[in-house]
Structure formats: C-alpha cells, structure tokens
Amino acid sequence: MTAQAKGEDRASMRTVVAASSAGTAFEWYDFFIFGSLAQVISKTFFTGLSETAGYVAALALFGVGFAFRPLGALVFGKIGDQAGRKGAFLATVLLMGGATFAIALLPTYQQAGIVSPILLILMRCVQGFALGGEYGGAAIYVAEHSPPNQRGWSTSWVQTSAAFGLFGALLVILATRWALGHNAAPGAFDAWGWRIPFAVSIGLLGVSVWMRLKLTESPAFARMEAEGAASKAPYAEAFGQWKNLKLVLLAFFAMMSAQGAVWYTSFFYVQTFMEKFLKVAPGTINGLMMAATAVSAVFYVVFGWLSDRVGRKPVMLGGMTLALLFYFPGFHLLERAANPALAEATARAPVSVTADPKDCALQFDPVGKAAFVSSCDIAKSALANAGISYANHAGPAGSPAVVQVGDARIVSRSAKGLPAKEAKAVKTGGEAAIKTALAKAGYPTKADPARMNWWGMFGVLMVFVIAATALFGPLAACLVELFPTRVRYTALSLPYHIGTGWIGGFVPFSAFAIVAAVGNIYAGLWYPVFFTLISVLTTLFLLPETKDRSLD
Questions:
Q1: Which of 307, 272, 264, 321 is nearest to 502 (CA)?
Q2: pLDDT tens-digit map of 447-493
Q3: What's the rounded Cα separation, in Å, for the pair 442 and 293?
Q4: Is 368 left (phi over 0), alpha (psi -120 to 50) or beta?
Q5: Contact at 8 Å (CB) between 433 and 381?
Q6: Residue 349 lies in a domain
Q7: Structural domain includes residue 352
Q8: Which terminal CB of the chain, N or C, has fewer other CB atoms within 10 Å?
Q9: pLDDT tens column, 269-323
Q10: Is the Cβ–Cβ distance between 517 and 365 less than 8 Å?
C-alpha cells in the first residue's frame, strides 16, 4: 500500500471514529441531563407525592428510559443486520434529539396535572427506544472499519463518548445554574431554568445528523451484502440457535451485569448518595463529577489500547473486581471526606427505631394515593427525608414507634383514623421533634464546604472511574468480536441494553428504595455488589479471550 493510500485510510478511520463517537456522545448527553436533574424533575412533575416518594419516582422514571432500550435494540438491531449499520444509527439520533427537545417544552404538574408526568414518561420511552439502537450500531460500525490490532483502541472512542456526553450535560447544567444564580430571581433554575439543558440538544442534533450523513456503509456488512449472505431472520438466528444464544447469555452474565452495576453506581448513584444522604450542594457535586468525568475520558482510551496488547478479559476482569472490592469502603470514605460532621454524629449519637413491625409499611407509592400515617411510618419518613441511617428494632405488638437519637428518646404518635387536618398536624409535630433531636445531637442539615476533604472525595471518585473505565474501555471490541457478522447488531445490542438498561438504569432507584426501606444509607450498595459478583465469576471461569478473532 502506498503512503498516500495509508494516509487516506487513516483519515477515513478518523472520520468514522469522530462521526460515530460524536453522535453517541450527543445521545448520552440527552440521556444524562435527565439523571443529573432528578431532584428538580421530582419537584416539577411529581408534586402530588411526598418528598421521598417523589424523589424515588423521579429516579424510577430515569430507569424507565433504560427499560425501553432492549426494545430499541431488537428493532434497530434487525434493521442494522438486514439493511445496514449506517441507516439504523442515523434514525436513532433523530428520535433521541426530538424527544429530548420536547421535554424542554412540557408543562409542569401544577400546569397540567397528571398529563404532565404522562407526557414525560412518553418522552423517556422514546429516548430509551432510540438509545437501544444507537450503541450497537456505533460500536459495530467502528470495529468493522478498524485494523484488527487496533479494535480496542478504535472502539474505546465510542466508549469515551459516554464521558463526553456526561461531561457536556454537567457543564450545561452547571453553567445554567451559575448564569441564573447571577442574573435571575432566586429559584429560577428550579422554576424554569432546568428546561435550558434540554433545549440545547436541538443544536447538537443538527451537528450529529450532518456528521453521520457523510458516512458510508461498513466494509464487513458491504461484503456480506454483496455475497448475498445477510441474515433473513436475525431474531431466529440470534436467539433461536443455541450457538448464538449461548453467546448472548455469556455476554450478559460475564460483561453486562457488571457494566450496568459498576458504571451507573460510579457515575450516577454516587451523585444521589452525595446529594440525598451526605447533603452536599448540587453545584459542588456537578463540579466534582465534571472533573472525574473529564479524567475518565482518557482512561477509556488507555484501557482500550491496553486490551489490544494484553487481551480484553484481564483488563475488564480487573475493573469489575476493583469495583466489587471498593463499593462499601469507597462510600464510607466518601462520607468521611464530604460530611465529616455526619460521620461524627453517627458515631457519637447513633439513631434507632423501635416499632411494631406490623406498623411499618414500605413507603413507596408512585401514584400518591397511600397515606403513611402510622407511628412507625411517620418516624421512618422523617429519618429517610433527613438522610439519616438508623437501626431497626422490633417492639411489642401495638406499641408506638420510639426514635432513639443518642440519649434522646422521641415517641412517635400515630395519625391513623384522624381527620386530614389533625393527621397532618400530628405528622408535622412528630417530624419536628425528630429533627430537633437530630440537631441537638449534632447531625448537620447540610455538608460544610469548609470541612470537606476535596482531594479525598475526588480520590474516591477516581478509584470508581478507573474500575468503570477498565471494564467499559475494552467492552465494545470484546462484544463485537464475540458475535458473527450476520447477527452481530441484533445479538450484541440486546444483552448490552438489558445490562445497562435494566440493571444499570435502575441502580439509583433500586439502591435509594432499599435505603429508604432498610434505614441504612449503605444498604443500597448490595444491589451493585450482587450483579458485579455474577460477572466476576462468569468472566473468570467462562468468558474466552477474543482479542485475536477475525470479524469475518
């Protein structure tokens, strides 16, 4: 090959990587602004619910978008395997951009009542459906263009697009908060400013579509199509033939279970944890996450490159194992670094709730119809809203709940059977008494910036970043290499989006709901621990090395 031809090939490869990664970064931006604004979304679209239920509902809605990703994976996977890679992921970016921009125009709950959250749910479903077809198309398109010895490095740019998308989302949110904080009335961001990050997506959509229109079909698919070897029934081949189905199952259990758990714990649940439980200011969280995300962009490429040298399996296994071992120590370190006063108060004056177990309900009601007014429910609701860990003790049948804060003892009254006005007064009084006891015991209402160990917080985040990027950096190359060309788009996309969608997307919701139910702010970590452990064992014993496989 001449020097000119080599130069043209390199330029062509750069265009392929840039166009695929830019479009994917934009779609991640669209998706991540929703997760980063969960607190504001809960106030805007779920004002009919209590504070805790509204926050859980907003996190669940974040997960709903992910739940629809497998459906998009099936639909666009079939299109990609039968009609080509390019057209499939061009359509996804149009759907994603349109749904995101539409969210900026939605009415609030106060303006339209129940219609408001229904429209929001619909837009989230469209977002999830579109993103289900995006990742597989981009990863496969880049891998099928890449030289065999550079697949890990080339596809890692698709992986790092997630970092660019998240960084862009956090940057726009932070810039909007700053601008409105200096130039608008107090509360402007929560009132209407949250719409700006969603509206910005229309410009990014135009850029992404323009770049993708310049692309041609992937060489592997073009060869297969020219030979008349394209699959006529991708679903039947991918899931109806054991030789392919076992690869789908292997991809899910070995890689995607951990990918969903590790990545979304590292970049999303950590935000929920800091804001809701450690009482760190949203602006501070955005700044920290932007710094961690910016650094992560480098590590995706580093670990993708490393997998071209030593193999996909050892790099990914190292990442998921690091996360598994660091979940609990890392979040404990984060508490001591971000809010030492909370850690000190917890050690000095531990909180417990002694109540009749039959008097305690699981306080999650997305439709806002249930009234949690028992003695136990009032006590636990006050502690959950305050983000306080507490121990549970069984009390005598029929006895009122007792909250112990250090040496202080508060008896929680029941509001069952009382008229609405009296019930509200009882609940308000009980919550006030508990908050007073917590304040006297030294429990802070917010983290003190003067006492924050900024480097300690960033250090914890960086350990999770290394774990997540070591797993995610080589993952696209490994997935592409695992499946045959005929059904690659369909077979790859489904396990990927079940893992990231159903496991990863519900990390913040599931972990927070577990905490609210159990009472320990660290209890939610058992969710990612479970799924990460599955992948560590499956990868160690069953996943083959794919680095040197031919894509044909």
A1: 264
A2: 999 999 999 999 999 999 999 999 999 998 999 899 887 778 788 88
A3: 34
A4: left
A5: no
A6: yes
A7: yes
A8: N
A9: 898 889 888 999 988 998 898 889 889 989 999 999 999 999 999 999 999 999 9
A10: no
